[in-house]
TrEMBL record:
InterPro entries: Glutathione-S-Trfase_C-like (IPR010987), Glutathione-S-Trfase_C_sf (IPR036282), Glutathione_S-Trfase_N (IPR004045), GST_Omega-like_C (IPR047047), GST_Omega/GSH (IPR016639), Thioredoxin-like_sf (IPR036249). This is Glutathione S-transferase C-terminal domain-containing protein. Residues 152-276 form the GST C-terminal domain. It comes from the Bacteria. Coiled coil: none annotated.
Amino acid sequence: MSNVRPDKGYTRDSRYITTRITADGRDGFPVEPGRYRLVVSRACPWAHRATIVRRLLGLEKALPLAVAGPTHDKRSWTFDLDPDGRDPVLGIERLQEAYFARFPDYDRGITVPAIVEVPSGEVVTNDYAQMTLDLSLEWTAYHREGAPELYPAALRAEIDAVNEEIYTDVNNGVYRAGFAKSQEAYEEAYGALFDRLDRFSERLAGSRYLVGDTITEADIRLFTSLVRFDAVYHGHFKCNRQRLSDMPVLWAYARDLFQTPGFGDTVDFDHIKQHFYVVHSHINPSGIVPAGPDPSGWLEPHGREALGGRPFGDGTPPGPPSPDEAVPPLV
């Protein structure tokens, strides 16, 4: 979902399907285990946050996962990782089939994450920002024992404010730099991105997490951009003032999260690189996917334990992912 403004700056099309799945079913879609399927790509940073939240909260059985391949064409994400190229539950080859089942004239982007109702085969929502909040607040009856509070009531105003900074300057900022069509638009996005990263470095120098002393929604939203930074954004999107690995505080913070159950065990660097370097042919017309960087540094000690903090608050870490959802280990 994107377009380029006349001044050659990038804006994201944010016209999402805002139907919500709630405990009381007020939009017609009540929380019900097994009724829905969460469709993601491991390449997509927006889908990645839903994958992490689902893992941390232990919703794997209540909300089964469908994983699309890392690349797509102009039509849609495809289920090319599955036998016969079809999702085994929904029976479709392309995610767009679920969108068109509900909206035959749908004219917006076919995006992930999306939640599809299994009985009807229709998309319910692709509103990724609200989706993860609802997993925290509306699906509580199916959270695992020891699930953390990722959006605690007392901190929501601060989390919301930090989330807005993350989205504007980092999550979307890297795209504004990478998709800019003028030097001026690129430099504006580049400057805002690194100014914000510098501010987060200052904030995190004395605090293990962004808000409070536990992992929250804000950390998840920042992590999905940081984990893609050196592999994609630094070169492909020309966000090259520094690599993440050259920013000591953010690099240690990102490694701390990566080594936390529910984070690194949802990262597939091969899928990430395939997506950005193949799909964005206007930026990388050769389609060559870089061999590096070496991902093994993500497993180096981070030393952030010295700052204290309780990753899961009063909760516990999630168990290991099921074999059918495991990502390739770092080598």
